[in-house]
Amino acid sequence: METIGFLMDGFAVALTPYNLMFALFGAFVGTLIGCLPGLGPANGVAILIPLAFTLGLPPETAMILLTAVYAGAMYGGRISSILLNIPGDEPAMMTCLDGHPMARNGRAADALAVSAIASFAGGLIGTIGLIMLAPVLARFALTFGPAEYFALFLLAFATLGGITGKNPMKTVIAATLGIMISTVGIDISTGTQRYTFGVLELYEGIDFILAIVGLFAISELLFFVESRMGSGRGKMSVGKLSLSFRELVSTIPTQLRGGVLGFISGVLPGAGASLGSFISYTLEKQVVGRKGTFGEGDIRGVVAPEAGNNGASSGALVPMLTLGVPGSGTTAVLLAMLISLNITPGPLMFTQNAEIVWGVIAALLIGNVLLLVLNIPLVGFFVKLLSVPPMYLLPIVTMIAFVGIYSISHSTFDLYFMVAFGVAGYFLRKLEIPLVPIILGLLLGPEMEKNLGHALVLSDGDWSILWQSALAKGLWVVAGLGLLLPYIVGPLLRRRMNAAMKESPVSD
Amino acid sequence: MFFKRTLSFVAAAAVSMHAMAWQPSGKVECLAPADPGGGWDFTCRSVGNVMQDLGLVEGTVQTVNMAGAGGGVAYAHTVSKRAEDNNLLVAASTATTTRLAQKQFPGMDADMVTWVGALGADYGIIAVSRDSEYQNLNELMAAVKENPKSVKFAGGSARGGWDHLKVLITARAAGADKLPSIPYLSYNNGGEAMSQVVGGQVDAFTGDISEATGFMKSGDLRVVAVLADERLPGDFSDIPTAKEQGIDAVGPNWRGFYMPKGASDEAKAYWVDAVDTLYASDEWKKVMRNNGLIAFHPPADKFDEFVRNQVQEIEQLSRDIGLLK
């Protein structure tokens, strides 16, 4: 097969000691960047671009370095989600939901290990998908018009109720808050400013990184201060790696589902890794989470989003490499790098710059293996972080976040704003309003609004365009099912489960 | 080649004469008004490198990113906090003049800084997909004139932004009225907009030539006009200009710099000359070639006038379509 030949050539490029060294370096730096709150994959890649230039790296080496950083950041994001309940970057947000409860139950090591394996599986599935299906999928992505995108985002919001289940109304409130925040800034479809009150810093809208760091990291710090004032908080037990082989095997279906779903949402430009990890999590919860252990430290709740976001990170490379269209913020930066390396992005890149494209793909495979090898031994190291008393750990993390944010934007305004988000996050948590849907609203709201607007412009205001194509109809049906099924199937299952519980009180 | 060498030698000599009067000492800063990875960031980093290679600066040029308000935060910073800094260059482009013209930097206008020079441009294009019924710009514009709603355009800037303005400039030059009713869909970047056009969801693409090169070479996209005075060099020489199709529309997206108004006259003269020298150098020509930039460099004394004219033209156009009251 021709592809195999190309891939072998790619390996020949990526496996030279020189390139391998940079892949290892990139993977390590990426993991570090990913686990620091405030620095995500897009920043990580952007920060290293000047380095690639200063070192005068050849194009394929530069791309391999940056791809490794990208994959590494996707691995790293989960670490602070699990240990501190502070997502390292936006796709790692979903990992907080079950990862941190696992750590609280003394299973931090297990959560870290299983999420590393899930990341590997997701990355592997994504890369294989990229190799096998890239050209086909790129054409498929082209068939997505505004109406289809709108239906896709609607699907995401329809399944939102499932993520933090206790009080669906509070989830809706949180998502609405996120969408409201997302309307600040220039409205690209009319060119007018909304809710900016003449403040220059608000003109481009509110950066979700600020919101994430503020809502999660700073509010965590505030909570800690409060609990120190009061009775004090018990130290978290660290726990040894107790993951059994059987448990690992039981998560394989979840890994597969998560990886595939993540990959698909990564392929669609504009959807990206956050949607990948989000849909993987909610679907997993709908499929197997009826026992109600999701959100309390279910191992599958860690596996699904991690497989999802790493699958998506490979998926996002599909439109970038085959069409020259960035599928996410990070790939947009990678694309800028390609352009400055005198490579024309576009449909011909696969044929004209085969050695670079396949070198990158091979580097992604190698990078994933390296990252797994790197991350498993590091579990012990990272878990040790938990034995640092929170009174030292949390301020350090917050400080790093401040420095990280400032180093990107050079704006003190952003720092004040972040603190404001932190205070807001504190009160929202007091009200038991979940934070994750706020970020999702912030991320997905503008895309949904934009595509609705576009669809209506295309149809001259005729709403029926939204469900005209077969693809859109399909998405609407899935969205409808996602919204209604929990209410129909839920009670049924609960009844059956109660019956089963009486028979055997033991469950894993 | 010989001519170029001589030119750069003369320019270099001119610079060194000025250099006796004033020379940047210490750290030179290039302010990129966006996050790393974008066009302004690229301008700063590549210019910084070439300036070092040519010995135009003593030490290094440090690129500082200051994102916000589409360049507004950096503009305000330059005007208020760095008003007399001799060692500061700020990357700018047509996006800067567009926002100035549309009063999107509140309380600030183009007079508040010194415009140093341009270092090349990316020219605007109008394109359709391979299967489109429109073969050339005239057919496309005829359809717009007959019914402004019949052709939907997609581009990578917000409504009222540069990509949208290019459609309006072209349509107005073609004699279309009802400019505000021409549908324009804005996407996050040119690539996303293009994929919607290639996928057949939207009729026409408006953007810059460098964005479209990939899809153009693969044959998925048919560029019906480039908005330049003359045909572009090299691979692009097959693309007809709007002018030769009888539609007098030009849309260069230039890359260049401004600096603080209060800097000393010697410093200003030094940087204007430095940009001239840089532009004439072979090193810069290579950067331009590698990045799809095309020759664009108004003479030093004309650049300020060019910026003012562009601001005025965009302001008028924005009024016409109701973006400005």
UniProtKB/TrEMBL annotation, chain A:
<feature type="transmembrane region" description="Helical">
    <location>
        <begin position="323"/>
        <end position="344"/>
    </location>
</feature>
<keyword id="KW-1133">Transmembrane helix</keyword>
<feature type="transmembrane region" description="Helical">
    <location>
        <begin position="389"/>
        <end position="408"/>
    </location>
</feature>
<feature type="transmembrane region" description="Helical">
    <location>
        <begin position="356"/>
        <end position="383"/>
    </location>
</feature>
<feature type="transmembrane region" description="Helical">
    <location>
        <begin position="415"/>
        <end position="445"/>
    </location>
</feature>
<feature type="transmembrane region" description="Helical">
    <location>
        <begin position="20"/>
        <end position="39"/>
    </location>
</feature>
<keyword id="KW-0472">Membrane</keyword>
<keyword id="KW-0812">Transmembrane</keyword>
<feature type="transmembrane region" description="Helical">
    <location>
        <begin position="111"/>
        <end position="134"/>
    </location>
</feature>
<feature type="transmembrane region" description="Helical">
    <location>
        <begin position="140"/>
        <end position="160"/>
    </location>
</feature>
<feature type="transmembrane region" description="Helical">
    <location>
        <begin position="465"/>
        <end position="489"/>
    </location>
</feature>
<protein>
    <submittedName>
        <fullName>Putative tricarboxylic transport membrane protein</fullName>
    </submittedName>
</protein>
<feature type="transmembrane region" description="Helical">
    <location>
        <begin position="260"/>
        <end position="281"/>
    </location>
</feature>
<feature type="domain" description="DUF112">
    <location>
        <begin position="20"/>
        <end position="440"/>
    </location>
</feature>
<feature type="transmembrane region" description="Helical">
    <location>
        <begin position="172"/>
        <end position="188"/>
    </location>
</feature>
<dbReference type="InterPro" id="IPR002823">
    <property type="entry name" value="DUF112_TM"/>
</dbReference>
<feature type="transmembrane region" description="Helical">
    <location>
        <begin position="208"/>
        <end position="225"/>
    </location>
</feature>
<dbReference type="Pfam" id="PF01970">
    <property type="entry name" value="TctA"/>
</dbReference>
Automatic annotation (TrEMBL), chain B:
<keyword id="KW-0732">Signal</keyword>
<dbReference type="Pfam" id="PF03401">
    <property type="entry name" value="TctC"/>
</dbReference>
<comment type="similarity">
    <text>Belongs to the UPF0065 (bug) family.</text>
</comment>
<dbReference type="InterPro" id="IPR005064">
    <property type="entry name" value="BUG"/>
</dbReference>
<dbReference type="InterPro" id="IPR042100">
    <property type="entry name" value="Bug_dom1"/>
</dbReference>
<protein>
    <submittedName>
        <fullName>Putative tricarboxylic transport membrane protein</fullName>
    </submittedName>
</protein>
<feature type="signal peptide">
    <location>
        <begin position="1"/>
        <end position="21"/>
    </location>
</feature>
